[in-house]
Amino acid sequence: MKRHLIVGRFGTTDRIAVPAADGEFLSRLEFVAAKKRLEHGIGDALDDLAKLGVFPSEIGVDLLVLAAHIQAADTKISRSTESQDGWTREIRLVVPVSDTNRWNSTTGLIERLLNFLTGDRWTVGFRARPPGFEQTVSDKPAQLIPPSFDSFALFSGGMDSLIGAIDSLGQNQIPLLISHAGDGATSDAQTKIFKVLKASYAQSNFNRLRIWMDFRGWSVRGVESEKTTRGRSFLFVATGVFAGSGMANNFRLRVPENGLIALNVPLDPLRLGAFSTRTTHPFYLARWNELLQALGISGLIDNPYWDKTKGEMAEQCTNPALLRTLVPKSMSCASPTKGRWLGLGTQHCGFCLPCLIRRAALRGSDQTKYSLPDLTARTLDTRHAQGRQVRSFQFAIERIARKPALAALLIHKPGSLSDESPARQTAIADVYRRGLAEVSALLTNVTTAPS
Questions:
Q1: pTM for the full model?
Q2: Closest to 246 measured CA to CA, from 161, 146, 103
Q3: Which residues span the domain enclosing 111?
């Protein structure tokens, strides 16, 4: 096991020494290649926003630089070789920022947020940007007409973000949709859906910011990359806040996710590690809002569907006809390339947790192509992926069927709900029960067993 230190550097003239502590392995992450332009997609994002009349604050840029450090560390440091327990890594970041006093006051909060999100042990420190980088955002030109956006929304290419976009547009909002260009299947879904939305709501001035943050030219020497991406949502949310910091008034960043996934109660005692994401958990979003307040950023991050199942989101969508057209283009699968091993194209597997929740929500109207098209065709082997997730759901469904009141206790397992009122905690337990009931209806006549 190694303890890793990632030090951000703004160009070759940035000679501020950051020594590694005993036992730390230091890696430098370069942010400037030439002409003081920020790399890793940040400069491109600034250019794209400027074309839309949005000019983020320097604190907003700092946040995206911090997110780049986190994304690089999370994806380039292997859990299997760099941790004692096969999961928990020790990572320290030193990030160049525009206002060290403001950022230093947030270190404890950021570390708490990241430890909760990824399950690692993070230490975060800040230093001043080197001379010449006091300003990274172009001066805002005099404008007669300010940007028309009245909200921001994460737009991943999945079914929930699709419903969120349709609902915003159906309510006559003008959102700026925030995307991260990830794998090919996800990026393809984002592009296809956005194109149809633009045609369907041609009178609206909504638009999209799509950031491509890539580290293919950088690695931690002697260390393999990491396949799990628990830290990805920090980048996703940070990009939305980065854009929102350029608005004159308070902004709202919507993070659309059904309540069952957002809470993500472990389905069985073995559902640990990479299988239990916390990207939209109420505790995580509450810490983000606390961070915005500490940084002086006037925005609010919320999940408008925290009390809805995925099926309820679909049923209550403001434009059901458009949703039916676009759902097959959306991508929910946790690993859409699995089908290649079966000689199939990139598509939904049909048996991972997100696929099962999607199938349950769309029962009777699902036009999605799945690698495993019929869950009832044969007994699913619980020693392999096709049966393992189904059996986990069956375990959770059976447990709640025996003791419905247990839901009020289980909702606290993924993380603290201390920010939520008693009434809201009751509603969270109820959406957990209803979400399991949706999946239970899907799994009727589905059998699992170890082969």
A1: 0.94
A2: 146
A3: 1-37+55-130
